Amino acid sequence: MPEQFLPDPVMPRPARSMKERMLAGEPYLASDDELGELGLRAQDLADDYNATRSRDGSERRRLLGELLGSVGEGVEIRPPFRVDYGFNIRIGARTFANWGLVAADVAAITIGEDVQIGPNVQLLTPTHPVEPEPRRQKWEAARPITIGDNVWLGGGVIVLPGVTIGENTVVGAGSVVVRDLPANVVAVGNPASVIRTI
Ligand SMILES: CC(C)(COP(=O)(O)OP(=O)(O)OC[C@H]1O[C@@H](n2cnc3c(N)ncnc32)[C@H](O)[C@@H]1OP(=O)(O)O)[C@@H](O)C(=O)NCCC(=O)NCCS
């Protein structure tokens, strides 16, 4: 098993929960009772959210507040919206996400203010071992994603674990962001690369 996915030595540290390991960005097993229950809670709330009608803004707002770590004023997320846990997601004021946002929040996902997110964007914090054996044993880990203020992610953008995108940056439709992007640029493609500054 590669060192990155080895569990900590049992002694002398007291055993930590899989949730604590997950939040520390260390290898953990998702098939844990506590995480299982937190995941089910999030799926229940997301199911309720996704069943709301567009004209029922106050119920959407209430459910988002219950589901997410924090939500700024005027945030709009069009269903369907999927998360792993919800409590790891913070969204700044006036941010808009179109249909089909997948925010896999095993690690923190921080989305700034006035961000525009196109349809079917995926923010993917989890990562599985590339080596076959620890992956078979279901070890996984995650790295946080940060989206700066006033970023625009075009439709179908995929953001990989550990990526930070600087404020005002535009990412073209269908791009896969594999490493950090600076502020005030336009980036496109797979892997996304900067084509110009703004
Ligand atoms: C990135 C974008 C904003 C255009 O930016 P722009 O600075 O005006 O770029 P241009 O149209 O001048 O294109 C510049 C180059 O990037 C390429 N390009 C543009 N968008 C691209 C994309 N999404 N993927 C790959 N390449 C792209 C162009 O083909 C062009 O290449 P070339 O110089 O070899 O001809 C736009 O192409 C885009 O992807 N918009 C997203 C639309 C969307 O998702 N809408 C849903 C609502 S949120």
Automatic annotation (TrEMBL):
Pfam families: Hexapep (PF00132), Mac (PF12464). SMART domains: Mac. GO terms for cellular component: cytosol. Keywords: Acyltransferase, Repeat, Transferase. SUPFAM superfamilies: Trimeric LpxA-like enzymes. GO terms for molecular function: maltose O-acetyltransferase activity. InterPro entries: Hexapep (IPR001451), Hexapep_transf_CS (IPR018357), Hexapeptide_acetyltransf (IPR051159), Mac_dom (IPR024688), Trimer_LpxA-like_sf (IPR011004). Its EC number is 2.3.1.79. Residues 19-73 form the Maltose/galactoside acetyltransferase domain. Belongs to the transferase hexapeptide repeat family. PANTHER family: ACETYLTRANSFERASE C18B11.09C-RELATED, SIALIC ACID SYNTHASE-RELATED. This is Maltose O-acetyltransferase. It comes from Nocardioides ginsengisegetis.
